[in-house]
Amino acid sequence: MTQITPELVKEHGLTEGEYARIKRLLNREPSFVELGIFSVMWSEHCSYKSTRFHLRKLPTKAPWVLQGPGENAGVIDIGDGDACIFKMESHNHPSFIEPYQGAATGVGGIMRDVFTMGARPIAMMNALRFGEPSHPKTRHLVEGVVRGIGGYGNCMGVPTVGGEVNFHRSYNGNILVNAMCVGLAKANNIFLSAAKGAGNPVVYIGSKTGRDGIHGATMASAEFDDASDEKRPTVQVGDPFTEKLLLEACLELMATDAIIAIQDMGAAGLTSSSAEMGDKGGSGIELDLDKVPQREANMTAYEMMLSESQERMLAVLKPGREAEAEKIFKKWELDFAVIGITTDTKRLVVKHKGKIEADMPITALSDEAPVLERPYERPAPKVDTTSFDKSKKLMDSLATIIGSPDMASRRWVWEQYDHTVMADTVQRPGGDAAVVRVHGTNKGLAISTDVTPRYCKADPFEGAKQAVAESYRNISAVGALPLAVTDNLNFGNPQKPQIMGEIVGAIDGIGEACRALDYPVIGGNCSLYNETNGEGILPTPAIGGVGLMKDVHRMATVALKREGDALLLIGETRGHLGQSIYLREVEGREDGGAPPVDLKVERKHGEFVRKLIEDGRVDTVHDCSDGGLLSALAEMALAGNIGVDVGVAGTTVDAIPFFFGEDQARYVLAVPAKEADKIEGELREAGIIHALIGKTIAEKVVRVEREGEVSIAALRKAHEGWFPTYMSAPHTN
Amino acid sequence: MKSAVIVFPASNCDRDAQTALKQLTGKDPHMVWHQDSALPDVDLVVLPGGFSYGDYLRCGAMASQSSVMKAVKAHAEKGGAVVGICNGFQVLTETHLLPGALMRNADLKFVCRPVKLTVEETQSAFTRKYSKGQQITVPVAHGEGNYFADEETLNRLEGENRVAFRYAEGDNPNGSARNIAGILNEKRNVLGLMPHPERVVDPLLGGEDGKALFQSLIETLS
Asked: For the structural domain made of B3-221, what CATH number should be given?
């Protein structure tokens, strides 16, 4: 019998107060196994103790939301009896320690969250953030993470259709790997995790349990220091082959009506899956660990309950259906074992070798888990009083920006991902949003991940609003109706009031934007303690948005398509240079305030642009964001290999802020000349600020009146060159 | 034309092949499980892309030992048509229905992108609807597509006009010997290729250059 000492309690990441609470809830000292179970269930990662209070403020409902937060993933109705299930989740800490396996198992975990609900995954996205390119670890981490995502996703046969990659020194010691999975199911065949009823068999399916990943959730709830590399043994090892079999076997079982509840074993493995299923079902669960398929000899109850071995699921079946289920899993050559039974005691009971190792009320792990209202300080938002150096040459700046680490083409990344498998990818990586067709229909799902962390640092509230607004814009820019988001909140240590202030500000910003845009949050994930030696990351509330396109034949892309099109800028350009890519890349300054977001205007502009695309009148649209108007135009020229000739007609704003300012709610459209007048008339009527800024031309150049021109070839060299050149340089460590 | 698609554990382009065949033949292909020891009565067998058996041991190596492959071999020996796409090509070389081997891509990275191919040979059931020298664009998506064979074999393949598709000059994505993208067996009833024709049978997905391969088969085998 292991003696519970104060040191042991501390090693388990529990405070003295929390330990006292455990003793109160149990009316006794916990056993060693129980201590381990409390440790993971009450960890930040599993309990959301720092954020739960604030997350309640988010809008989560809409007529099309079939399932909001609280299940493995959120579900929306996309018509015709179809449902879309999606979620984004972080795997930051493990990916920093072991980039290939960390990223791979992040992909595997989020896919299980989606297919455990009855969906076939149909698209993956990733929001990745790395340290500055010159940091000795960055290249190695980029290489490993990208290979890990590809290694897992490609084998699963699910297209990885896009995402984000950014670099900033604040991520030097804490990279972010946020993976999003989108799946497709029938609305009347969604599987939940509530283990209702007593006397039902609890079955274990998938891979065997080993000693990998023990206390992964606890690791993910702590800061790093210089010794963090020693935590490598807590990173799990992924096996996409088994996951692919598990996916097919689960979908086959789900076609029967044998399942009462099912849940993947993610963070905290057997512990959290059994506790959550019992909790949601209002039942108890009794597990017999002797029955658990084991990969290693002599595993203890503690190890089995806390193992984070991958590719495992826990399900509760209707009594008498075990043989039918077992037959399916045997066909797919996966482990299947009845390891327990549901009870009416509302207790989690764990037996091993004839001994009761744990016997605790399930509510102690869920409802009674601490909810903290941590003190916070809302930082005063930075005001934008940015001046700029008027001597800089506009076209030189464009070449610099388009070839900078954050703006250069990500082709090096996405060519390592199979993005066309499943033969439904109708818009590939590189556009505003990726679009996958709903198999066998003309409907499409548009997907985008967005956040601009430098804005969030300057002003967490406006920055988070901007993340949602940009998501809404990207989905609208391809012609889809934004329906719902998943949020992945990546922050530093919440015990610091300034960091907690960033968290609260960002959640409030997301809430305000999602309400104004009818864009509810249907699930998400928090990753806190992204700090190394006391240095936190930029606040990074990543937003994964999904929209519905009625007809994939009416879709816009960023690529220019014809010479002689009129270039139409929708939205007001005041020339907001604060926190812009321009200031950072050209003047070397991270200065000023975040651009303000007017949500009413965002919505109005989004609706206008979407209607033009849906009506088949416009097929070329790009949102204006990082790098401003001229970067957007250059990206459109690069994608279509067609030139542009533009000017600053009718504005009092100087050329530099006009072309590189990052004002929000703006879109660039290339419209056939004969449509331009008519669309302008409609814009005037709608009271939408807009400007005809130029046209597409035969010459392969980006030309700005009075400023000069740069060839598309030169821009392409800069744009396509950065990533491969950077990655092929010799490793520095 | 009656067709079958073989499903190995972790095949993942089986549905894509099924969808393309259904679209172009109007009939659902038989989906045949790897543990089956007999094939239904079909004219064409497709070995789809994917990661059969997780690519463990060597790509295609374990699939080549599966019970269904005995039936596929027998089908090929009787002159039945077999096409192996991507992982299917790897299975065909491991089964020795085609010569050579597919090694890791020269730059050691998985690559997914459209590539330009030249149709080298139109005298086959798979390629007759293309024209000789025609340039087509078909996506690849693989980590091990670097075709290798000894000089004698390569010379023989070329001499017998058994190189069906070649990567266009300057667009070889994997370092394949002599830019080889797809080859025929001696009897010209077995084709293996790394690019994915089943992903380009719909203009919305980036082209229809894969259609002629299936149409060639339909014309020959119907």
From this structure: 3.40.50.880
